[in-house]
């Protein structure tokens, strides 16, 4: 009995501290699912793997830094705040049926101690801070993770991780802080997972000069400390502390019928088609597109969660409003339902 009370108290304390942490936390619904990537493969249609994209509706094949400013070109955003016309994207998780066909794993918004987020697909975005923060600048972009990674051991679990959510309600708090405890780099393979939470934490230290770099990473660095804390002290090579950006995706395994499972192996894979190692290859892309100095004001005024913040001029849309912001595929192909193979190389074909 004492142990049960102790565990309950610990969970309650963790939940209350998470609720108290000051951060922007908001929903971004699916803008489009498409095989384009203006950072890694600018101008190319049918890129090597499929992405799910959220944010401003000016997202395009080629978004030349500085000249192509989403904040100026977009007329709507699939994210909660009207001032945020940035673009965020990740690889797509698929389920491989025992008959060899593939289906995109559906997504849902996350709940937990900070409240339910409502998503039409897409992901949840966090901007966390610890101490003095300098906002990103127009034209800024970065990547977390590496689509070519094939070994879990080469990935820091403190920055990229997965959690088996073994309860059927995404509002039920499961486990501790992101990328701690039993979280894994690889995608969990248990049939008991009701949902699979994916977390991508971006570096929070900038060199203060370059808006991008050839590998889209060298201008950024992880500072002291680990996990979703807002980021610790930065190294002298990258002295400018920027908001710690985190993506959170809830892959809804409740929609996967257990009769579809193969007799062995992990049926979950990301769209790079390298099986179990897709956990190690998880990655996210970011193109800054906040209007004017709205993000800097949001950090200075310590705006919180997904609520209006008059002190910084932030206004939150209703789910009906941001869910309605969509664009057409620029590399047209079927991505819904059962597919003969994951979209790679030639155009995808329905199963």
Give structural notes.
The protein has four helices and 17 strands. Strands 1, 7, 8, 10, 11 and 15 form a six-stranded antiparallel β-sheet that branches. The protein has a five-stranded antiparallel β-sheet with strand order 2-3-4-17-9, with no helix packed on it. A three-stranded antiparallel β-sheet has the order 6-5-16, with no helix packed on it. The protein is mainly beta and 351 residues long. A hairpin with a 5-residue loop joins strand 5 and strand 6 (102-104). It has helices at 2-20, 70-73, 294-300, 319-323; strands at 23-28, 30-34, 51-55, 87-91, 93-96, 102-104, 107-108, 123-128, 141-145, 160-165, 195-201, 205-206, 220-221, 240-241, 244-251, 268-270, 283-287. It has one domain (2-323). Residues 1-20 form the signal peptide. Residues 37-290 form the DUF1996 domain. Keywords: Signal.
């Amino acid at each position: 009995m004492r142990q049960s009370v102790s565990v309950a108290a610990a969970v309650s304390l963790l939940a209350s501290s998470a609720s108290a942490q000051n951060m922007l936390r908001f929903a971004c619904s699916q803008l489009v699912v498409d095989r384009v990537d203006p950072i890694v493969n600018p101008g190319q249609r049918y890129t090597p793997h499929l992405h799910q994209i959220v944010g401003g509706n000016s997202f395009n094949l080629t978004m030349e830094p500085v000249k192509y400013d989403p904040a100026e070109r977009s007329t709507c955003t699939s994210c909660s705040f009207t001032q945020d016309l940035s673009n965020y994207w990740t690889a797509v998780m698929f389920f491989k049926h025992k008959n060899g066909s593939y289906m995109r794993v559906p997504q849902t918004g996350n709940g937990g101690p900070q409240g339910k987020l409502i998503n039409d697909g897409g992901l949840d975005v966090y901007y966390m801070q610890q101490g003095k923060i300098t906002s990103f600048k127009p034209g800024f972009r970065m990547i977390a993770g590496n689509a070519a990674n094939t070994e879990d051991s080469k990935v820091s679990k403190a920055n990229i991780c997965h959690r088996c959510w073994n309860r059927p309600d995404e509002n039920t708090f499961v486990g501790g802080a992101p990328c701690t405890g039993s979280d894994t780099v690889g995608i969990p393979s248990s049939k008991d997972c009701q949902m699979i939470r994916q977390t991508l934490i971006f570096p929070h230290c900038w060199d203060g000069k370059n808006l991008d770099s050839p590998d889209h990473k060298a201008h950024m660095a992880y500072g002291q400390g680990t996990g979703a804390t807002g980021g610790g002290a930065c190294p002298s090579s990258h002295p400018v502390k920027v908001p710690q950006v985190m993506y959170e995706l809830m892959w809804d395994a409740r929609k996967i019928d257990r009769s579809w499972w193969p007799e062995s192996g992990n049926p979950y894979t990301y769209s790079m088609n390298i099986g179990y190692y897709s956990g190690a290859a998880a990655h996210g892309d970011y193109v800054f597109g906040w209007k004017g100095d709205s993000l800097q004001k949001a950090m200075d005024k310590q705006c919180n969660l997904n609520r209006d913040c008059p002190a910084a001029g932030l206004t939150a849309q209703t789910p009906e409003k941001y869910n309605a912001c969509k664009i057409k595929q620029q590399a047209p192909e079927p991505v819904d339902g059962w597919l003969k193979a994951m979209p790679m190389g030639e155009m995808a074909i329905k199963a």
